[in-house]
Write a structure and sequence with these properties.
The complex is a heterodimer of chains A (76) and B (199). A four-stranded mixed β-sheet of chain A has the order 1-2-4-3, with helices on one face. The radius of gyration of chain A is 11 Å and the shape is globular. Chain A has two helices and four strands, in the order E-H-E-H-E-E. Chain A has a single domain (3-72), classed as Translation Initiation Factor IF3. With 76 residues, chain A is of the alpha+beta class. Chain B is of the alpha/beta class. Helices cover 49% and strands 14% of the residues of chain B. Chain B contains seven helices and five strands, in the order αβαβαααβαβαβ. In chain B, strands 4-3-2-1-5 form a five-stranded parallel β-sheet, sandwiched between helices. In chain B, helix 2 (57-72) runs parallel beside helix 5 (143-152). The chains are: A alpha+beta (76), B alpha/beta (199). The interface between A and B is medium-sized, with 14 and 13 residues.
Chain lengths: 76, 199
């Protein structure tokens, strides 16, 4: 099980979820994507995104204006 | 008529009735299966359909944000560009072969999405420059690159031919690789979409 890093710091809605959906498409099921973002709507959006797509938000942290989300890809 | 004969008669008649009724039920089942197989029954697709009527920077930002977001959410997207919205797809201006009226409309239209006005605070063209500056500061993707991303990610873009006619817009002035259609083209997609918007 691999973890892919994705830097979305400084990017505004809707670009973070666009990049996340692109990155996740390339990954095998079970792999994790670790995303860093600073968009103020990022937490709400990533939670909605995993619910809609059927993936799992494993972890969400925020420190010094940087939000870090770890998502696990599920078979859809 | 003895008991055995009566029983036989009853059995036959029951059998007959059953066969008749079952045939009806089977016929209905076949019809239902065919509807399901052909996507009938009005089951909506996971699709967003947007009518883009406005041609200013701010509503277009909204339209393309929702389009890109929908693609990222695993949905299909159809965008129908009509009247002022056609300016989002404009890649150039041409005057040749146009009537005087059409030339006048063309002269008043922006060159393309990179040079369109804002719906408020346009201030004779100062507004868009000001907003572009603010957006750059906040690292917001520009409208032209959002349009390019939408096309690259498979958003179906359809230009309304009737409003192209009214505005004197030719296919050569619009983005290559888009579709053309009318109200039925829009309604076919809208009728099966879960999200429909008019912007």
């Amino acid at each position: 099980m691999a973890t892919v890093e994705l830097d979305c710091k400084g990017l505004s809605c809707p670009i973070p979820i666009v990049k996340i959906s692109r990155a996740m498409k390339e990954m095998p099921d079970g792999d994790r994507l670790c995303v860093q973002a600073s968009d103020p709507s990022f937490q709400s959006d990533i939670e909605a995104w995993v619910r809609k797509m059927g993936h799992v938000l494993i972890d969400f942290q925020e420190a010094l204006g940087v939000q870090t989300a770890t998502i696990e890809k599920r078979a859809i | 008529m003895d008991t055995a004969e009566i029983e036989l008669l009853i059995e036959r008649s029951v059998q007959e009735q059953l066969t008749k009724r079952l045939a009806g039920v089977e016929e209905e089942l076949r019809a239902l299966r065919s509807i399901l197989k052909h996507g009938g029954g009005n089951v909506p697709e996971d699709r967003t359909t947007i009518v883009v009527f406005s041609g200013e920077m701010d509503p277009l930002f909204g339209a393309f944000t929702i389009a890109l977001g929908s693609i990222a959410m695993g949905m299909e997207v159809s965008m129908f560009f009509t009247f002022w919205g056609l300016n989002a797809l404009r890649v150039g201006k041409s005057y040749s072969g146009k009537s005087i009226g059409e030339k006048m409309v063309a002269a008043m239209m922006p060159k393309g999405p990179a040079s369109i006005p804002t719906s408020r605070m346009n201030m004779g063209g100062a507004g868009p420059i000001f907003f572009k500056h603010l957006m750059k500061q906040r690292n917001i993707t520009t409208l032209p690159s959002m349009i390019a991303m939408a096309q690259e990610m498979g958003v179906r873009m359809v230009a309304c031919e009737t409003s192209m006619g009214v505005m004197g817009v030719t296919r050569e002035e619009l983005l290559p690789g888009i579709d053309y259609g009318g109200v039925a083209t829009y309604l076919e997609d809208a009728a099966k979409s879960k999200v429909t918007l008019f912007i």
